[in-house]
Amino acid sequence: MSSLTQSPPMDAPVTGQLRILQTTDLHMQLLPFDYFSQRIDPATGLVSLADQIMALKSDKTTTILCDNGDLIQGSPLADYLAKHLSAGAPHPMLQALNLLGYDAMTIGNHDFDFGLDVLRNALRTARFPVVSANLSAVEGPALCLPYAIIERQIVCDDGLSRPIRIGVTGFGPPQSQDWGDKTGKGGILAGDIIEAANRIVPQIRDAGADLIIALCHSGIGAAAPTPRMENAAVPLASVDGIDVILAGHTHEAFPNLTQAATKEIDPLAGTLHGKPAVMATFSGKTLGVIDLDLSWNEKGWAVCGHRVRLEPAVVTPNTQSPVGQQLRSLIAAAHTATLAKMSAPIAHTAVPIHSYFATVQPDLSQELLALAMQDTLAAAIDGTPEADLPVLAATSPFRSGGRGGMGHYIDIAPGPITLRDAAAIFPFADTVCGVRRTGAQLATWLERAASYYYQITAGQRDQPLLNPLNPGYNCDTIFGLSYEIDLTQPARFDMDGSEINPRSRRIHNLSYHDKPVADTDTFVIATTSYRCKGGGGFPALPHSDILHVMHQPIREMLVAHLRDSAEVKGPGQPTWSFCKIPQTAATFQSAPAAQAHLAGPITYIGAGADGFDTYQISF
Q1: What is the pLDDT of residues 420-450, one digit of tens each?
Q2: CA 541 from centre of chain
Q3: Whole-prediction pTM
Q4: Is 229 left (phi over 0), alpha (psi -120 to 50) or beta?
Q5: Which residues in 389-420 are b (16+ Cβ under 10 Å) and which e?
Q6: Calpha distance 314→587 (Å, rounded)
Q7: Between vectors from CA 170 to CA 164 and to CA 173, what angle results, nearest 5°?
Q8: What DSSP letter does each residue of 21-78 carry, written as one string?
Q9: Could you report the per-residue pLDDT of 143-193, keeping only the tens digit for each?
């Protein structure tokens, strides 16, 4: 690498170390508190990472601390701040990053959810560069810098300190242009990640960078680049001149001992195309750490070794440390106000509403959400040419365990339904899109969703059902239809949405009002703006098939529906089921509390890993 250092020539290279720390997808999880279950969760929150961050920064190793975006949205506290924080007031999450001494950050797609005004106001608080090479605003002042140069000193093994210029740039999903700014005002430009990298990296080198870190709010997906790729961390790592990848967006862990290695990905060493990479899950559950060994000679700096790891949030009472107390004080008033607001009752339920089995049998919480989306869209298209078409709704579970951990479930006991419960059912700021789909297209949609499950071998009773790497939010259900899923067949699509078995069909007996759905039948589907525009590896829908776009947040639709309904009286309706497979069963993980809700073919097996319990479903 080129260098601007002025140290005297050396016969042999000397070495030093640089530490890079990463948080990502914090989603306004500053405190170790779960607003959806209203209880302390010490394994989450920036407060729970604070002492580790300060300790790692305070030793003799030169350290760079970065955040990968999706910072200011994702919790009831975030919603409260978006509505009540006055213009010009400092944003508590950015104040927290200032307090901990962050050196740079990029923005994620969800940072646009409250609109550009809210995002601009938040970023105004930052005392460090905010960078993005492919996300920008159409009008007004620049949201971000395309890159920044951070100057540091590296203490080398000969006892001398030498300067290093670290280039930092950022990237986010191109789909942010479609998903972002749910205010309906638009104004976002989002370019292709790889095209932006090929443009910006030479500029960073020309500016004198000795090392380039890419803050990539994009997941570790396919190796081959495709236009406007959502999860492009792997091809990004192949761009010449980038030295380190900090990934995010998909809430995964990397390095990951359970992930299979490929030619491009080494999940044990934590490399993409041989370059060190890390993804620190989400909500402050882990801290990403990359320790780089750097060599220096008269030609400049070079990476000569690395170690990558994830440090889980400390679950001891470190939150009472001085830095923890300072962080808590930033949000104390808003936290109290949020708790009061979220406790307000909006309806009543005569039956439990939970998501412990949300992906293994029809789920009442998703049905309530679907009904709200259907009713609102049906009213919106009344009087249009599409008013006579059947209106369906596509939903997926957002709190169904998995990566979120044992407490990541909905559990509403009979009694009041509160605003907090509605936020748990749908925690995002997405809006509804009404889209036209044929019967054949709906079958393909459901085939993509059914890739969530492993293939099942008939006659075996102890085999895994769910792929732990596949997020529950990609397991869509289409309400208004009935259908069966045949798990003896291989999945037609892989977890990234690529078609791998074109002839395979898991979806059978697709019906509407007890009548088989023909390939040419036409429906209107209420779906999220995220899914409509290609989120989660589902294909983006053509503009010609997007019939109606609503700007009211989906959660407001749900709250209104629950208030109008007043009471939830019965269990969910049977929408789908697995095909019968005699003498066959599979196991899956859920919370211990799920034992109180066993129903149908689900039985309890025993204790599982990481605090979960093991359950079995018979086919």
Answers
A1: 999 999 988 788 999 999 999 999 999 999 9
A2: 21
A3: 0.78
A4: beta
A5: bbbbbbbbbbbbbbbbbbbbbbbbeeeebbbb
A6: 31
A7: 160
A8: EEE---TT--SSEETTTTEE-TTSSHHHHHHHHHHHHHSSSEEEEEE-S--S-SSHHH
A9: 999 999 999 999 999 999 999 999 999 999 998 887 655 554 568 899 999
